[in-house]
Amino acid sequence: MTAPHFDGPRFDKKVVLITGAAGGIGRATAVRFAAEGARVGLVDVSRDGLRESLAAVEKAGGTGLTVEADVTRSADVTRYAAAVADRFGGIDCFFNNAGILGAVRPLVEYPEDAFEEDHRPANPAAVHDRIAGGIYPVDGGSVA
Q1: What's the predicted TM-score (pTM) here?
Q2: Could you say which of 23, 47, 49, 130 has the lowest number of CB atoms within 10 Å?
Q3: What's the CA gap between 140 and 55, in Å, rounded?
């Protein structure tokens, strides 16, 4: 099997919205997408982390927009999705990376109520509703 061939950046002119973008996997993902030509929307609750991530995106040659928001709040989800779509003309990809670290301990020692709180989804239903409702049309893809 041969690797696909690309004539230029793979994500040229695409828009990627990344939650949990203030550090770690989110920041690394943003930098990689930017290096591949994407414009990135960076979402997180950490203002300082977002500034650092935007600087890393720009150093990689990319363009980004930061939105300080809590992904567990539907109003924030609507606001950050609209901000990114308005700025870049739509959204082609969501990278839903935000989460809550919670307590670091063996799973068998995790209290059930704390586990539920720490591991609840970061409101993908609100994101799905915005996309499926046609607010941010894209040329293809799927929402799962």
Answers
A1: 0.78
A2: 47
A3: 30
Domain count, the chain: 1
HSE, CB side, 13 Å, CA atoms: give it for residue 55.
7
Strand partners, 41: 17, 65
Question: Domain holding 75: CATH number?
Answer: 3.40.50.720
In a domain, 100, yes or no: yes
List the one residue out of 124, 22, 28 whose CA is nearest residue 81.
124
- CA of residue 74 relative to chain centroid, distance: 15
C-beta neighbour count of 133 within 10 angstroms = 8
Interval 20-37: pLDDT, tens: 999 999 999 999 999 999
- Number of residues in the chain: 144
- Domain range for residue 94? 15-132
Looking at the predicted structure, is the pLDDT value of residue 11 above 80?
Answer: yes
Query: Does 63 reside within a domain?
Result: yes
Segment (H or E) for 34: helix 24-35
Q: What is the DSSP letter of 5?
A: P
